[in-house]
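Predict structure. Input: RGAP1 protein, 260 residues.
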Amino acid sequence: VIRPQPCGICGSRIRFGKAAVRCRQCQLLLHPKCREQCPLSCVPRPHHHAWPREGVLADFAPATPPLVPALVVQCVTEVEMRGLTETGLYRVPGTEQLVREWKQRLLQAGGALPALSSVTDIHVVCGVLKDFLRGLKEPLVTFGLHPAFLRAADIPDAAACATALCHMVSKLPPANRDTLAFLMLHLLRVSHSPDCKMDILNLSRVFGPTLVGHASANPTPLVIMEDTPRQCKVVAQLLSLPPDFWRGFLGPEQENLVPV
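Output follows.
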């Protein structure tokens, strides 16, 4: 190895000067010791299958429903496996450098994601998920539907508010809708964990700016100030919708997706 690269099986870095094994077909790179854990068969992966550095959510989504990017699935799966006893989940920041490194590693891997089990600090995994969502060209609540989501969340009657929000969710692009449903069910499980101490209000403060964002890519300081409390309100209202509404977009076996 001349340039250090992550092992495609365990995810840890293969250092300069060390021996490595690379598949001639799919170009998977791994430690020699990880060879026994490597799948027996592989599919050649053209370079254009790698994810872009930035894009809208659909650019990262799989070809078949539910249209939830593998990166989102893997981060959520890892958090639910070992993070639901962590206080301040998603509020406590992970080490910024590690978050950047792992996000880049996952984006470069495309569909063949390295395991996140080697990331010791679960807050780093949370940081990768938040940073991925923040880095999209357009938030999950799209620029075009942003004003309508804010208006729906402002409806004072609870039943009418829920009806309006359900209608707006159904108008989202399929990848945005499925991913939002997957995240809402995950955040509800986080909110129900007494150890996390992250209720719906806390989670809405963390994820409001990330999921709802603004109506344009370059908001003015005044718009940012005005939007922030309304973003949180939208996420809080979305988390108040019945879980069965969100499950309807994923199917019973796909609520807890396991990355392939």
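The first strand starts at residue 5 and ends at 6.
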